[in-house]
Write a structure and sequence with these properties.
The chain is an all-alpha fold. Helices cover 21% and strands 0% of the residues. Among the domains are: 65 residues, no CATH class; 65 residues, no CATH class; 75 residues, no CATH class; 60 residues, no CATH class.
Amino acid sequence: MLRLSFLIILIICKVILAQKSPHGKNFKVECEDCHTQFSWKVNLEEIKFDHNKTKFELLGQHKNIDCKSCHIDLKFEQTKINCSECHIDVHKNTLGQDCKRCHTSFSWVIEDINRIHTNSRFPLVGKHKTINCQQCHKFYSTLKFDILDIECYSCHRKDYESASNPNHLLSDFPKNCTDCHNINNQSWSGYFDHNFFPLLGGHSQRKCSSCHLNNNFTKIDSKCQSCHLNDFNRSQNPNHIRLNISYECNICHSLNPRWKPALFPLHNNFYPLTGRHNLIKDKCFDCHKGNYSSTPRECVGCHLTNFNQTTSPNHSLLNFPQQCETCHTTNSWIPSNFNHDQMYFPIFSGKHRNTWNDCRICHINTANYGIFSCLNCHEHRKSRMDDKHRDVPGYVYESNACLSCHPTGTKPNLNIKFNSTEQ
């Protein structure tokens, strides 16, 4: 009976409220979705109304506050849903009205400023990622974030003007810092793109002033001699000026420190490296012994020891000429081009052609090629030869005497009549 009475009263209230509801004329939510028969006070734990189905989902701190904190006059359709319509803009409109870009309904505290900056005009990378906010945002303490110029120079003007190595002002460097510096680095140094003249090897200097004297960064000649002319003029091993070596240093030198090792592709202009010499072209010390100014060009200058030690034949004893190229080539000492026929005795022509196959047939003492024997092949009887040469002045039965009368291996041009063939 009591319950029936309550229902009747509730129906009557609805009729009355429908005519004059505190929630406005167009409010369509049933009373029992929010209220009970015991009180008009709303119990958030028992309420049936699902606020999340409205245009404003209750999350975070909004889930715990009293309804009247937002719905002040209970006319829900007039309630604003934009943050700035409920919350005072402490940033004084320096960040716009979209609070959700930085804040959430759970807390005003910003947990990841780097992520937020990533979506801005100036992502925080490199050194900017670790500095304090107020270093850029001068009114940070008052929570004002006025729009800043994102050009480097606008913040780093003092750094630009105080730079001394190199002096940016004196050298009229561009004010676009990223031309030389990398925004991802933790410091100013170590980025300048020097690709127009790669800083490699001996050029890998830490101090710009090593090349850019008097802070001159605008008119540096890229040719080697513009910086290294003094090195060229002072060079004595070899003497570059005396040898008229080219000023193009890169013809012989690489970018290795202290000029070494050096190549010398112009060697053939001074001394052609042919034959065996070509095999040692990368071992300069073998010939130059560290001295590149007075290396002899004549063979004997390097090969005198070979000349003196040679015994087959003995060059010194036989008084051979020291012009090695007379008999030898740069390919090898053997075979030689020794012209025995022209210089001494015809063994490759005339009667002795093809009659021997070893030098030792005539030169029986291999330690001394000045000694030879005709009698090893020509088995003459001494008594017979003595008789045949009875009228020959100076005749001696000896090989050197044979050569003096028979220098070409044929009969001498003498008025001598032989009655029989030599035996």
